[in-house]
Write a structure and sequence with these properties.
The chain is mainly alpha-helical. It is about 55% helix and about 5% strand. Strand 2 and strand 3 form a beta hairpin.
């Protein structure tokens, strides 16, 4: 099987940009007056033309979109559910009863998307909407037994999908990828 060769980033083909060691750098930084001068900063990829396919943020976005499309297709086919509905249901199944405002940051969805997803899940009897007893302006969402059961079944399926997305990576690579993704944002 032939594999396509590609750079991890447009900067991968550049010479080593690591700073010189202390011994190597002393001579390079010395000026005529004997004072230490700052080493000039080499422009990254000055000679290389920009290409979208080698632009790491674009490739990350393309990967995320491909994963989202695949997950959305599975959710729609097997549970007649949107990705947003699953995100809301999964969040609530883990956290229990919470306000709509609290769901938003946990799901990376905006308020409108959370509200629409919650309405569809409520209509399907997967969520229950209650008014907060202390603050009547707040709506509290809570998964029903049916909602928790479906969330559990979907959880098993998405873990299986995750394995498919990451096939070819060993455990250390998966851990490292997870760590790196936390530092990117």
């Amino acid at each position: 099987m032939a594999t396509d060769s590609f750079q991890v980033s447009m900067f991968d083909a550049l010479p080593d940009m690591a700073p010189p060691s202390k011994d190597e750098g002393k001579e390079a930084r010395a000026s005529k007056t004997g004072k230490k001068a700052k080493a000039p900063v080499a422009p990254l990829a000055a000679e290389e033309a920009f290409t979208l396919d080698n632009f790491l943020p674009y490739r990350m976005l393309a990967s995320a979109q491909a994963i989202s499309k695949r997950m959305a297709r599975v959710l729609a086919d097997e549970w007649d559910m949107s990705l947003a509905e699953w995100q809301v249901l999964a969040s609530l199944s883990r956290d229990g009863a919470v306000s709509v405002r609290e769901v938003e940051p946990r799901t990376l969805l905006d308020t409108v998307a959370v509200s629409r997803a919650a309405k569809r899940l409520t209509d399907r009897k997967l969520l229950r909407r209650d008014v907060n007893k202390q603050d009547k302006r707040l709506v509290v969402l809570k998964p029903t037994k049916k909602g928790r059961d479906i969330a559990s079944a979907i959880g098993l399926k998405v873990m299986e999908l995750e394995g498919e997305f990451l096939k070819g990576m060993n455990v250390q690579d998966r851990i490292r990828l997870s760590q790196l993704l936390k530092t990117v944002a």
